[in-house]
Design goal:
This protein has about 140 residues and is of the alpha+beta class. The chain has four helices and seven strands. It has two domains: about 1-45, SH3 type barrels (Roll); about 50-120, Arc Repressor Mutant, subunit A (Orthogonal Bundle).
Length: about 140
C-alpha cells in the first residue's frame, strides 16, 4: 500500500496516487481529499521506497510505521512533532532501538511521526503486502 502513497517536495502532507500520464501524475491529498496534478519537474517519493539508517542495515519505513502503530495501539502518536530533539530521539529509540543517531536527524523523526499520523487519520492500511499492489500496477510492454 505504501507504494501508492507519495510525498511531494514543497507540498505538505501525503498523497494517494490516482493515475499517471506521460509527464504528470494525478494525486489525492490524504488530508483534505483534494485532487491535483503533479508534474515531472516536481520531486516525488513513494513511501514504499524510503528506509531509515540503522547501525547494521537500513530499515524500511513500513516496518517503522508498523512498530509505531503497535506502540500506540493503532492511535495517533503520543509525542508531538514539536517536542524537543532529545524527546524525539528517546521516542524513536523505543520504536527502532538501533537507529543510527548520527545519520537520523530530529527533522527526519518529526517527518516520520507526521506521516504516521496522516496515515492513521486517513485509515490507510500500510501493513498490507506490497506484492499485490505491484502486480496490478505494472503493465507489460506489447511484444
Amino acid at each position: 500500500m505504501l507504494k501508492t502513497i507519495l510525498s511531494v517536495s514543497g507540498k505538505p502532507g501525503l498523497y494517494q496516487l490516482i493515475s499517471s500520464a506521460k509527464n504528470m501524475v494525478i494525486v489525492e491529498s490524504l488530508v483534505d481529499k483534494k485532487k491535483m496534478p503533479i508534474h515531472a519537474r516536481d520531486k516525488v517519493v513513494s513511501l514504499g521506497d524510503i528506509s531509515i539508517y540503522t547501525e547494521t542495515d537500513d530499515a524500511p519505513l513500513k516496518d517503522i510505521l508498523i512498530s509505531i502503530k503497535q506502540k500506540e495501539n493503532g492511535e495517533k502518536a503520543s509525542i508531538s512533532t514539536s517536542a524537543k530533539p532529545e524527546e524525539l530521539k528517546k521516542y524513536f529509540k523505543e520504536v527502532l532501538p538501533d537507529f543510527d543517531r548520527d545519520r537520523v536527524y530530529p527533522t527526519d523523526i518529526k517527518k516520520i511521526i507526521n506521516w504516521y499520523n496522516i496515515l492513521v487519520n486517513a485509515n490507510v492500511e500500510f501493513e498490507k503486502e506490497e506484492s499485490k499492489v505491484e502486480e496490478t500496477s505494472t503493465e507489460e510492454e506489447p511484444k
